[in-house]
Amino acid sequence: MTSGHGSTVDGVLRRSAHRTPARVAVEYRDRTWTYQELDDAVSRAAAVLLGEGLERGDRVGAYGHNSDAYLIAFLACARAGLVHVPVNQNLTGDDLAYIVEQSGSALVLADPDLQDRLPAGVRTLPLRDADASLLARLAGTEPYDGPEPRSEDLVQLLYTSGTTALPKGAMMTHRALVHEYLSAITALDLSAGDRPGHSLPLYHSAQMHVFLMPYLAVGATNLVLDAPDGDQLFDLIEADRVDSLFAPPTVWIGLAHRPDFATRDLSGLRKAYYGASIMPVPVLERLRERLPKLGFYNCFGQSEIGPLATVLAPDEHKGRMDSCGRTVLFVDARVVDENGEAVPDGTPGEIVYRSPQLCEGYWEKPEETAEAFRDGWFHSGDLAVRDAHGYFTIVDRVKDVINSGGVLIASRQVEDALYTHEAVAEAAVIGLPDEKWIEAVTAVVVPRGEVTEDELLAHAREKLASFKAPKRVLFVAELPRNASGKILKRELRDRFGT
């Protein structure tokens, strides 16, 4: 293999394998990989992919569940100079076809139980659980020993969540992701002695790039799980096999509502990371009260920045529970008005970024790229406030702010007020068309126990100024979400706005 600068995604693993070859890198079900074994498997998998006739720069879709094979495939694409395209394994039909076709994937690595969902004519290779799968072919393949990718090469098309429009493929380079890994390591206090459990989908940037890859960089032993199953997670924590866990607020809410949450011995959990969507402050307060020694980290960002942009560390929560923290090592951020001018601290505006972690733009979408990267900054679409100490608080998505009677209302404040009622399991606040108010503040609630609309309206009026309180409460069995757990408010507006 020709030498290079080594600022590559697969180089992260190679260095750990040289440093601690015999240490266990990954455990998945009944399989265990040392760092040396994992590095060797990646080189063999890279050779398998290139043996399929793929050429450097080709896009390779990944449509599979969590597994060691999924991780090996990602790293193999990186080592072979291919561009990995992670696809939500829950996608079907037109949504699935759109990403496969828009990315121009020459091959899709798929778990066998998912292959039939792919569009007709798409070339596939099983990831695992088949005689000719990528994992099964490693033993009979010589390791790849060709040219290294360059740090400026694309390594992944990271499709955005698509909460307001069709997903866009953020073009991530090796250099951008390696910078993001170092930001995560320093801001989240990741160390080789941690015992992380990775239960969220690996196709999602947070689990892969904020936790699994940075933990491989520091040489930790990583337990890859199929899904965030509460019974399994509690068992692993009690058995001292997991002491570090990332989950979106939806999962933490589910764990906190479990009947055995108050009785299980969870004292072995040392680090709790939350992110991907806004954590309701009342829920966070209940978690901290139950587990006072547990260190909570709020992780915030978005796909286009790798995705970690800001972190609120455990010792920073007091007095700023609703904050998403300060910028990480390689991120610069400011808050601007609609003209792109910086606003004073304490004034709401759009948060914008400059960073080596940022994507190169959107795959084959020059107009969207120009719009997002105008004025030399990346425009996030998030409405935020910065304080004098550099802490940011996300108020809302710019497109989710409600205009009621000419007054702009942030949905998060209304949601936090509703979460203080014991009968509210989940809540999403949206604006619906209204002749009098332009948009009427409307709460969509998943109830926990018996509660009426009048009760919740009265409760909200006690907590909020009258113009912010909901005009209506709608009850639903569940809220629509995307792959990262973010509530799809556009679906709620479409559903109830007619």
Automatic annotation (TrEMBL):
Q: Which residues form the AMP-binding enzyme C-terminal domain?
A: 413-486
Q: Which UniProt keywords apply?
A: Ligase
Q: Which residues form the AMP-dependent synthetase/ligase domain?
A: 13-363
Q: Which organism is it from?
A: Streptomyces griseoruber
Identify the domain of life. Bacteria
- Protein name per UniProt: Acyl-CoA synthetase
A GO term, aspect molecular function: ligase activity, forming carbon-sulfur bonds
Signal peptide range equals: none
Q: Which family does it belong to?
A: Belongs to the ATP-dependent AMP-binding enzyme family.
Q: State if Ligase is listed as a keyword.
A: yes
